[in-house]
C-alpha cells in the first residue's frame, strides 16, 4: 500500500514534542479533533524533526569536536550491575526474557537471541551500577582509551576477559561523574540463533493473512539485544562534552528549558553512535539532568533498555511480568523521540529496565533536533508519566 501523502500530516512537520505540549486545553483536556482514518504515519527523519535543527556536521564543528581524537565505538554490547541477591535477579531476568548462559557462585551472564554472547552481566555484592559496555572498533581503540584516560582507569590497563562467554579484552574507565564505562574488543561472535516468526497482519484494504489464525502463548518477551541506557547527571554540560568529545557519540535530539533570563539551557541528550552512512539506533545513550525533586539526590543510572520483537510480544511480556507480581513503572506506551513502544519495570534491586520495540534508525544525514524538555513530550500515547519514572 502506498504511504499516505505527507500533506495530510502537516502537524508532524513541526516538532512533535511541541505538538504534544500544545494539544491540551487550559483545563488539561485534549483539544477536540475530528476523526481521522489514521492517526499515525511514517515520516522521513528530517521532515519529522522539522526546522528546529542543525546538521550533525555543523553541531560537531560548533562544539570544536576533533573526530580524530574519538575512540570508535562499534555498538553497545551489554550492561553490568552488582546485586545483593543473584538468585532473585536471575528469576527476574528470566521472567524479563533473558537466558542464563554462564553462572559461577558470584557471577551470572544473561543472553538474548541477538548476536551478542550476553546482554547483561550480574555480580554478587551490594547494589551497584557497574556501567554499560561498548564494543570498540579495533584493539587499537582499546589502547587509545587506556592511554587517553589513564587517570580514569579502573582496570589495570587492557585486561583479558577470562571468565565471560566469548572472552575478549576490556578497559574500564570512569566518566567525570564517576560512572564506570566499559570498552570491550575481541569477543567471539555467537552462532546465529532462531529469529521469531513475523506476524502477518491484515488491515482494512490489504489482507495477506488468509485462513491463518493469530495464536499466542503466554510467557516472557524474549530479549533480542541491549538498545540503550541513560544516566542522570549533576553536571550535564560537562558530561555531554566528555562523551561527545572522546567517543563517536553524536546527538539525535537535545532538549532544553527556557531560563527566566530568556536564555536556553540544554538539559538532556539522546545520542547515537556515528557510523557514517550505516543505520544505527536513534539513541544508544542518553544523559539528563538531576533535578532537586529527584528521589535519588546524586548522579545515578536511569534505566537500560532491551529490544523485543513486536507489540504483541511486548504486551504478552507485560502481562507475564504483571502476573508474577513485579512492579511496573510506566507502560505500555509510545515514545516520541526515538518512536519506541516502551514498557518500564523495576527489577528486584530497584534498577529500572525497559522492553522496547519498533525504534527509529538514523545515520550521519539525520538532523540534530532541538525541543523543549517536559514530561508531556515523553510519550504520544500510554499511561500518564508517573513521578517515579522521573527519579
Ligand atoms: Fe529508554
From TrEMBL:
<dbReference type="InterPro" id="IPR051785">
    <property type="entry name" value="MMCE/EMCE_epimerase"/>
</dbReference>
<dbReference type="GO" id="GO:0005739">
    <property type="term" value="C:mitochondrion"/>
</dbReference>
<dbReference type="GO" id="GO:0046872">
    <property type="term" value="F:metal ion binding"/>
</dbReference>
<dbReference type="GO" id="GO:0046491">
    <property type="term" value="P:L-methylmalonyl-CoA metabolic process"/>
</dbReference>
<dbReference type="InterPro" id="IPR037523">
    <property type="entry name" value="VOC_core"/>
</dbReference>
<protein>
    <recommendedName>
        <fullName>VOC domain-containing protein</fullName>
    </recommendedName>
</protein>
<dbReference type="GO" id="GO:0004493">
    <property type="term" value="F:methylmalonyl-CoA epimerase activity"/>
</dbReference>
<keyword id="KW-0479">Metal-binding</keyword>
<feature type="compositionally biased region" description="Polar residues">
    <location>
        <begin position="1"/>
        <end position="30"/>
    </location>
</feature>
<dbReference type="InterPro" id="IPR029068">
    <property type="entry name" value="Glyas_Bleomycin-R_OHBP_Dase"/>
</dbReference>
<feature type="domain" description="VOC">
    <location>
        <begin position="75"/>
        <end position="186"/>
    </location>
</feature>
<feature type="region of interest" description="Disordered">
    <location>
        <begin position="1"/>
        <end position="56"/>
    </location>
</feature>
